[in-house]
Design brief:
single chain; mainly beta; Thrombin, subunit H; four-stranded antiparallel beta sheet
Length: 93
C-alpha cells in the first residue's frame, strides 16, 4: 500500500492502483511497521492499514516508524514515540 495524492488530498492505494483508504489527509507518508504518518488540520498522527487512527494527530511533524519508534516534533521539541503514541525520549528547550 502506498500514499497517493488525489484531488488535492492524500489517501492510500494498493499495488493495483485502487484506492483503499480515502483521501482525507493534507499529507501522508508510506506505511512502515504497520503504521503510516498522516497530517490532518496541520497536525500529524498515525493510522493502521485499515485506516483507523492509532495515534491521534497532535504533533507538528511525525516520521515513519523504525524499530518500533517514530521521530516526532511538538512545540519545537523533538523526541521519539512508541506505537501507542507515548514519548520514549523528548528533548527539552
Amino acid at each position: 500500500m502506498a500514499a497517493a495524492k488525489l484531488n488535492e488530498l492524500w489517501g492510500f492505494i494498493n499495488p493495483a492502483g485502487e484506492l483503499v483508504i480515502e483521501e482525507d489527509y493534507e499529507y501522508a507518508g508510506d506505511f512502515n511497521e504497520g503504521l503510516a504518518p498522516v497530517c490532518q488540520d496541520k497536525k500529524w498522527g498515525s493510522i493502521d492499514k485499515t485506516g483507523n487512527i492509532v495515534i491521534p494527530s497532535r504533533f507538528d511533524l511525525a516520521k515513519k516508524f523504525r524499530d518500533g519508534l517514530a521521530q516526532v516534533s511538538i512545540n519545537k521539541n523533538w523526541g521519539y514515540i512508541n506505537k501507542e503514541g507515548n514519548f520514549i525520549w523528548q528533548s527539552k528547550k
